């Protein structure tokens, strides 16, 4: 991982609220993170943890209303994406920042051939003419491993299988050589053997193209296989952040620990009984005034109900937002 | 308890499935003529013993859910035999099935879609009691409370509606409904697929507790191979409408015999970066063929990394290379053992097998 270089993307104090009839939902609460050039940052969390909303907020893809990005800065190449005219942001989206979503069928337009859809950003953002865009589109389909690419440019999305559609989505995201690729659960809807194909493709593409990637998932196995660094989200906040090996070897937040213990494995020892995280994820109806995990936490003590813990350094490039020191088994001295 | 379950393997299995087929017709043209069939389940056989959990795994479209539904006779099956406690139900009409339904129940994948949003929890759980029993109102209410306690739902919520519950709690409602009539056999069709990771373990532990307490027998259908390894005693792997491998859990996960099972297991990413860095993933090429038009020979031959010429011609039979461990693959066929190495030189046509 290229350390020391200045980050390609730097997010600070991001706060996103959904205004609903039932009151505000504080989906993202003062989230800070950065992305180094060429690295793959894994973002782990359960539904409602704020992982997708965070990424959608920073590229201005949330519908407003009901969403409202209330605070924060998103530094990308010297600019603040949150304070940029919509037009300029549109030029960055799809060109310098590409994205891939979970369900390719809802992101592809069913009435146009995929070739046309891949060529569109090439002509719009890169100013290629028809013939050049077509050549590039074919190259891209070949790059993501779609056989018989020239012929398949004329096919419609429904003529592709799920795995092939996801490859098309990746080809589209890569069309303009983005510096950053945001992938939101790109393999969750796929079968494991197809997921393995896509993960392999992703590793290969990163080696060849060297782009930085944000990979959102709830699957710790996927993260273990592809991420350089991991950010764990819970209740709209980042609760832990660490290089991938450190996170799995010595998780410091009780939520990360519990999550790692609750998932069964296909190899190694088999637990007779699964460890359980009791209770439910929090309802984010107000700004956080206490630790969002305290109700389900085995280590919660009185401080946890009084204040929301800040992220503190717990190791090299490793921080956790918790008042409890799991190594010492005692409250942390901050 | 578990001791009897272990030694009681000799008596008749609770569920016996033989050569089950479920084909869905394809109609086309102006006259809607039948032009073919989707062979969703195409000759499946297995037993499930009393008190055990049989895991049924495979990728989407392999026919595992159809198989589960066909066994409970939610479909009129194309052919085959389904015996539950020795009682043949494969050919029965819906009227004859009705009195037998209390014995066999189902837990569905999506608790959102399988619970009526206009009914209270008490009515949802009580509906099977209305249909199949003559309990008085008070007896019904007591039974509903008892079921809510059993699945860990607060009795005070009996008059709430499904939307007022979280995904995990809704799945508990679905489980309580399935338990209402004291079934012996429950088909769990992807019961945790729609739930978050931290909630999945809660529901799986509940299913295990209920199995111990009420002596239930499960067919646990899932695409989650790690969860199946946790919950199942034996595991059947399906591919394109067929069971390709069937074995006790540790034998299947420890030493899978079928190349498809091997690829499937190696494709599951493990939550361990050091292990992931050293693990060799078998990457299968291409996609699953259409069940309307399965390939000649072995169903898996189009994607199999070890396919031999014979695999493209002859459909392999189910064999038992290790005691209790079945696989349908020519690699494990004593008549077609490939010569050392991987050349398929001794692939002569063998008649009369």
Automatic annotation (TrEMBL), chain A:
<keyword id="KW-0067">ATP-binding</keyword>
<dbReference type="GO" id="GO:0005524">
    <property type="term" value="F:ATP binding"/>
</dbReference>
<comment type="similarity">
    <text>Belongs to the ABC transporter superfamily.</text>
</comment>
<dbReference type="GO" id="GO:0005886">
    <property type="term" value="C:plasma membrane"/>
</dbReference>
<keyword id="KW-1003">Cell membrane</keyword>
<protein>
    <submittedName>
        <fullName>Peptide/nickel transport system ATP-binding protein/oligopeptide transport system ATP-binding protein</fullName>
    </submittedName>
</protein>
<keyword id="KW-0472">Membrane</keyword>
<dbReference type="InterPro" id="IPR017871">
    <property type="entry name" value="ABC_transporter-like_CS"/>
</dbReference>
<dbReference type="InterPro" id="IPR027417">
    <property type="entry name" value="P-loop_NTPase"/>
</dbReference>
<dbReference type="GO" id="GO:0015833">
    <property type="term" value="P:peptide transport"/>
</dbReference>
<dbReference type="GO" id="GO:0016887">
    <property type="term" value="F:ATP hydrolysis activity"/>
</dbReference>
<dbReference type="InterPro" id="IPR050388">
    <property type="entry name" value="ABC_Ni/Peptide_Import"/>
</dbReference>
<dbReference type="InterPro" id="IPR013563">
    <property type="entry name" value="Oligopep_ABC_C"/>
</dbReference>
<dbReference type="Pfam" id="PF00005">
    <property type="entry name" value="ABC_tran"/>
</dbReference>
<dbReference type="InterPro" id="IPR003439">
    <property type="entry name" value="ABC_transporter-like_ATP-bd"/>
</dbReference>
<dbReference type="InterPro" id="IPR003593">
    <property type="entry name" value="AAA+_ATPase"/>
</dbReference>
<feature type="domain" description="ABC transporter">
    <location>
        <begin position="12"/>
        <end position="260"/>
    </location>
</feature>
<keyword id="KW-0813">Transport</keyword>
<dbReference type="GO" id="GO:0055085">
    <property type="term" value="P:transmembrane transport"/>
</dbReference>
<dbReference type="Pfam" id="PF08352">
    <property type="entry name" value="oligo_HPY"/>
</dbReference>
<keyword id="KW-0547">Nucleotide-binding</keyword>
Automatic annotation (TrEMBL), chain B:
<dbReference type="GO" id="GO:0015833">
    <property type="term" value="P:peptide transport"/>
</dbReference>
<protein>
    <submittedName>
        <fullName>Oligopeptide transport system ATP-binding protein</fullName>
    </submittedName>
</protein>
<feature type="region of interest" description="Disordered">
    <location>
        <begin position="333"/>
        <end position="353"/>
    </location>
</feature>
<comment type="similarity">
    <text>Belongs to the ABC transporter superfamily.</text>
</comment>
<dbReference type="GO" id="GO:0005524">
    <property type="term" value="F:ATP binding"/>
</dbReference>
<dbReference type="GO" id="GO:0016887">
    <property type="term" value="F:ATP hydrolysis activity"/>
</dbReference>
<dbReference type="Pfam" id="PF08352">
    <property type="entry name" value="oligo_HPY"/>
</dbReference>
<keyword id="KW-0813">Transport</keyword>
<dbReference type="InterPro" id="IPR003593">
    <property type="entry name" value="AAA+_ATPase"/>
</dbReference>
<dbReference type="InterPro" id="IPR003439">
    <property type="entry name" value="ABC_transporter-like_ATP-bd"/>
</dbReference>
<dbReference type="InterPro" id="IPR017871">
    <property type="entry name" value="ABC_transporter-like_CS"/>
</dbReference>
<dbReference type="GO" id="GO:0005886">
    <property type="term" value="C:plasma membrane"/>
</dbReference>
<dbReference type="InterPro" id="IPR050319">
    <property type="entry name" value="ABC_transp_ATP-bind"/>
</dbReference>
<dbReference type="GO" id="GO:0055085">
    <property type="term" value="P:transmembrane transport"/>
</dbReference>
<dbReference type="InterPro" id="IPR027417">
    <property type="entry name" value="P-loop_NTPase"/>
</dbReference>
<dbReference type="InterPro" id="IPR013563">
    <property type="entry name" value="Oligopep_ABC_C"/>
</dbReference>
<keyword id="KW-0547">Nucleotide-binding</keyword>
<feature type="compositionally biased region" description="Polar residues">
    <location>
        <begin position="340"/>
        <end position="353"/>
    </location>
</feature>
<feature type="domain" description="ABC transporter">
    <location>
        <begin position="15"/>
        <end position="265"/>
    </location>
</feature>
<keyword id="KW-0067">ATP-binding</keyword>
<dbReference type="Pfam" id="PF00005">
    <property type="entry name" value="ABC_tran"/>
</dbReference>
């Amino acid at each position: 991982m290229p350390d020391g270089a200045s980050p390609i993307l730097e997010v600070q104090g991001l706060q996103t609220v959904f205004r609903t009839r039932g009151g505000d939902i504080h989906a993202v609460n003062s989230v800070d993170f950065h992305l180094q050039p060429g690295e793959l940052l894994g973002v782990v969390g359960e539904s409602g943890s704020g992982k997708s909303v965070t990424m959608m907020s920073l590229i201005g893809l949330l519908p407003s209303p009901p969403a409202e990005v209330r605070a924060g800065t998103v530094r990308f190449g010297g600019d603040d994406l949150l304070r940029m005219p919509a037009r300029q942001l549109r030029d960055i989206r799809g060109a310098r920042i590409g994205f891939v979503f979970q369900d390719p069928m809802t992101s592809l337009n069913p009435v146009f051939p995929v070739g046309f859809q891949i060529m569109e950003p090439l002509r719009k953002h890169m100013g290629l003419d028809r013939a050049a865009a077509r050549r590039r589109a074919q190259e891209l389909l070949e790059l993501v491993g779609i056989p018989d690419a020239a012929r398949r440019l004329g096919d419609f999305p429904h003529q592709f299988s799920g795995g092939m559609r996801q490859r098309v989505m990746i080809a589209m995201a890569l069309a303009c050589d983005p510096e950053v690729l945001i992938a939101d659960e790109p393999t969750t809807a796929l079968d494991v053997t197809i997921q393995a194909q896509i993960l392999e493709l992703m590793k290969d593409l990163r080696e060849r193209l060297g782009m930085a990637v944000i990979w959102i998932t709830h699957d710790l196995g996927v993260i273990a296989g592809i991420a350089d660094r991991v950010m764990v989200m819970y209740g709209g906040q980042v609760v832990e952040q660490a290089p991938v090996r450190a996170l799995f070897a010595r998780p410091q937040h009780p939520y990360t620990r519990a999550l790692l213990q609750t998932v069964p494995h296909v190899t190694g020892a088999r637990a007779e009984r699964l460890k359980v995280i009791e209770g439910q994820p929090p309802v984010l109806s107000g700004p956080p005034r206490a630790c969002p995990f305290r109700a389900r936490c085995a280590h919660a003590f009185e401080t946890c109900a009084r204040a929301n813990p800040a992220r503190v350094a717990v190791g090299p490039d490793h921080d956790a937002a918790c008042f409890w020191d799991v190594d010492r088994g005692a409250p942390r001295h901050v | 308890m578990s001791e009897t379950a272990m030694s009681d393997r000799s008596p008749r299995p609770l569920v016996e499935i033989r050569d089950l087929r479920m084909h869905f017709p394809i109609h086309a043209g102006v006259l809607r003529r039948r032009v073919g069939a989707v062979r969703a389940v195409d000759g499946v056989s297995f037993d499930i013993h009393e008190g055990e959990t049989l895991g049924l795994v495979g990728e989407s479209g392999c026919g595992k859910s159809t198989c589960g539904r066909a066994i409970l006779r939610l479909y009129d099956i194309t052919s085959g035999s389904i015996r539950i406690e020795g009682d043949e139900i494969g050919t029965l009409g819906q009227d004859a099935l009705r009195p037998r339904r209390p014995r066999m129940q189902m837990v569905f994948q999506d608790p959102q879609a399988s619970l009526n949003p206009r009914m209270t929890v008490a009515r949802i759980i009580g509906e099977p009691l209305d249909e199949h029993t003559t309990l008085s109102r008070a007896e019904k209410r007591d039974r509903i409370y008892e079921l809510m306690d059993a699945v860990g739902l607060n009795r005070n919520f009996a008059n709430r509606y499904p939307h007022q519950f979280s995904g995990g709690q809704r799945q508990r409602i679905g489980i309580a409904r399935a338990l209402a009539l004291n079934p012996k056999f429950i088909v769990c069709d992807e019961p945790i697929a729609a739930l978050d990771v931290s909630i999945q373990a809660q529901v799986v532990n509940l299913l295990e507790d209920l199995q111990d307490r009420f002596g239930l027998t499960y067919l646990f259908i899932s695409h989650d191979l790690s969860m199946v390894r946790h919950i199942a005693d034996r595991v059947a792997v399906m591919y394109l409408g067929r069971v390709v491998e069937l074995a006790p859990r540790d034998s299947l996960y420890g030493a899978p015999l079928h190349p498809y099972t091997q690829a499937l297991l190696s494709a599951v990413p493990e939550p361990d970066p050091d292990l992931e860095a050293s693990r060799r993933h078998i990457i299968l090429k291409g996609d699953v063929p259409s069940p309307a038009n399965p390939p000649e020979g072995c169903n898996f031959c189009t994607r199999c990394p070890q396919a031999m010429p014979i695999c493209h011609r002859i459909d392999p039979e189910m064999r038992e290379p290790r005691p209790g461990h079945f696989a349908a693959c020519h690699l494990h066929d004593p008549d077609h053992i490939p010569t050392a190495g991987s050349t398929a030189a001794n692939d002569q046509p063998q008649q009369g097998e």
